[in-house]
Design goal:
Elements lengths: L11 E5 L2 H6 L4 H9 L3 H8 L5 E6 L2 E12 L2 E8 L7 H19 L3 E7 L3 H9 L3 E6 L9 E7 L1
Parallel strand pairs: 4-5
Antiparallel strand pairs: 1-2, 2-3, 3-4, 5-7, 6-7
Amino acid sequence: MNFGRSFLGPTQNLVPFRPEHLLRMELKGDELRYLEIIPEYHRYIIDMAIPDLSWTLVGKGKPVCLFGVRPMWPGVAEVWMLPGIGIEEHAIALVKGGRHIFAQIEQEYGVRRLQIAVRKSNYTAYKFARSVYFEQESLMRQFGPEGDDYYMMTRIR
């Protein structure tokens, strides 16, 4: 899938996900908690990353965000994202890139529903999902690995 570079700045690059990106990325506080809660968390992320549908946003030479799409069944796919330290410096590229990538996936793969789970207390993630045209669909109580409530957010084509 070719995205071009129209949404990236001079110090940013979007590359196919590779396991070493996860090992090189500095995780943020909430994601560090998952290392304690989810057994084999790194393996979980690596297994979730489907080739050609998973990417790394590199900013200033360091991985700052890993993300991808996992098809569930025809027409439906789920977005996953793992932000790292420094992602805030690349928010504009992430929003512009997310809009572009999600639209292209919907078109090329015939996806009519994209969904993402967003922790209710993570206002930054909620704002990001809204900025790339996801709408809040429901509240999933005690859904997360830490027992927190999450919103199911969807982007319907």
